[in-house]
Write a structure and sequence with these properties.
four-stranded antiparallel β-sheet, globular
Length: about 130
């Protein structure tokens, strides 16, 4: 059974930094696409970042401030968040693509529906 567990969320002042972690279990995701999304109260879930086999992409609102990375030995993906703003406040979700999903070349991995597994989320609150 695949599980994604996020950690590292919390309360931080504007301008500060946090690093989120997403530990995967149940299978190895070293060659699979993994991403981060977020959802603020009253808003739709928003794409934040994705790490594919050899490339990364970011949402426009976080470019230049957030960095996604992975440690394949630990089966873990990270989201380093710098220069945090109040508008970054949200629940952050980790997501992963299945092996079957990786063979679907119509997926761009920028939408919720492109992912097959989801974590429970971790709250990030940025005080202004």
């Amino acid at each position: 059974q695949v599980q994604l567990v996020e950690s590292g969320g919390g309360l931080v002042q504007a301008g500060g930094s946090l690093r989120l972690s997403c530990a995967a279990s149940g299978r190895t995701f070293s060659r699979n696409t993994m991403g981060w999304f977020r959802q603020a109260p009253g808003k739709e879930r928003e794409f934040v970042a994705v790490i594919r086999w050899i490339s990364v992409s970011y949402g426009d609102s976080v470019k230049g401030r957030f960095t996604i990375s992975r440690d394949n030995a630990k089966n873990t993906v990270y989201l380093q968040m710098n220069s945090l703003k109040a508008e970054d406040t949200a629940v952050y979700y980790c997501a992963a693509v299945s092996s079957a999903g990786q063979r679907d070349y119509t997926r761009l991995y920028l939408r919720e529906n492109d992912y097959d597994y989801w974590g429970q989320g971790t709250q990030v609150t940025v005080s202004s």
